[in-house]
């Protein structure tokens, strides 16, 4: 049987109804050459196969998973990704389930690799699920490494979001005590609202917001800036030092500014 097939050049000629496992493996290994074959050669053999190649490959991965043919489904997925086919997360999760069912840590690692390779922005839910599989199969080191990586990735994102939230909150507070954005410091040709937004996110204000969420109450904040602080930031930071009750020490390219309780040591001359 195998010898007849190995002489066959294209996989579409393989009998689709055959359920022998070895044959299925063989069928997979034959998939690779078809894409590299000249289109004319392929189309004379079976044109519908070419157009539906991707769908049939996905279908085949899922079929192999259903039949718990884990290694073959891994190999086919790997090949599809190499060939540039985007494999949906749904299919990858089915593959992962299949690997978990096989109770082979090595196969779960392969599925893990394929998931991260084909879905670089994989959600934390998927990683948690993956970690739970590792734990179940005795791969606690894999699980821990995965969770550590996940934490390293999510922490800065959360901090960034928190920083932006904090800067908005600060502006609400300083507006209440009289802050009015001086949009003359924005040189871009944009409307007033956009100018106010742009001032709000000047780097020193983001640095202050970040400092506030990262340090205990009352800690002095030290900020370095290699450009001269703009007049609107100077005014805003004075008011911030008042509402947050912190000392803010800022070094710009000209001098030090010590902001405390709404005033600056430079006396507004710098
Ligand atoms: Zn500024
Ligand atoms: Zn100053």
TrEMBL record:
<feature type="domain" description="DYW">
    <location>
        <begin position="178"/>
        <end position="270"/>
    </location>
</feature>
<dbReference type="Pfam" id="PF14432">
    <property type="entry name" value="DYW_deaminase"/>
</dbReference>
<dbReference type="GO" id="GO:0008270">
    <property type="term" value="F:zinc ion binding"/>
</dbReference>
<protein>
    <recommendedName>
        <fullName>DYW domain-containing protein</fullName>
    </recommendedName>
</protein>
<dbReference type="InterPro" id="IPR032867">
    <property type="entry name" value="DYW_dom"/>
</dbReference>
């Amino acid at each position: 049987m195998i010898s007849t097939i190995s002489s066959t050049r294209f996989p579409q000629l393989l009998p689709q109804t055959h359920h022998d496992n070895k044959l299925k493996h063989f069928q997979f290994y034959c998939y690779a050459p078809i894409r590299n074959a000249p289109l004319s050669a392929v189309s004379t053999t079976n044109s519908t196969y070419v157009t539906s190649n991707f769908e049939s490959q996905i279908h085949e991965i899922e079929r192999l998973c259903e039949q718990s043919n884990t290694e073959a489904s891994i190999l086919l997925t790997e090949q599809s990704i190499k060939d540039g086919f985007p494999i949906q997360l749904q299919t990858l999760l089915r593959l992962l389930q299949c690997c978990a069912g096989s109770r082979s840590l090595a196969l779960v690692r392969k599925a893990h690799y394929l998931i991260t390779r084909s879905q670089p922005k994989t959600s934390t839910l998927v990683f948690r699920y993956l970690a739970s599989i590792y734990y179940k199969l005795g791969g606690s080191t894999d699980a821990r490494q995965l969770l550590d990586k996940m934490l390293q990735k999510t922490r800065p994102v959360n901090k960034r979001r928190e920083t932006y939230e904090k800067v908005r909150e600060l502006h609400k507070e300083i507006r209440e005590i009289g802050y009015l954005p001086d949009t003359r410091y924005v040189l871009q040709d944009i409307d007033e609202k956009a100018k106010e937004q742009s001032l709000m996110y000047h780097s020193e204000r983001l640095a202050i917001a970040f400092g506030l969420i990262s340090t205990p109450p009352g800690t002095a904040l030290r900020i370095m800036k290699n450009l001269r602080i703009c007049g609107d930031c100077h005014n805003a930071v004075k008011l911030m030092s008042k509402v947050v009750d912190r000392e803010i020490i800022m070094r710009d390219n000209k001098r030090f500014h010590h902001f405390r309780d709404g005033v600056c040591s430079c006396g507004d001359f710098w």
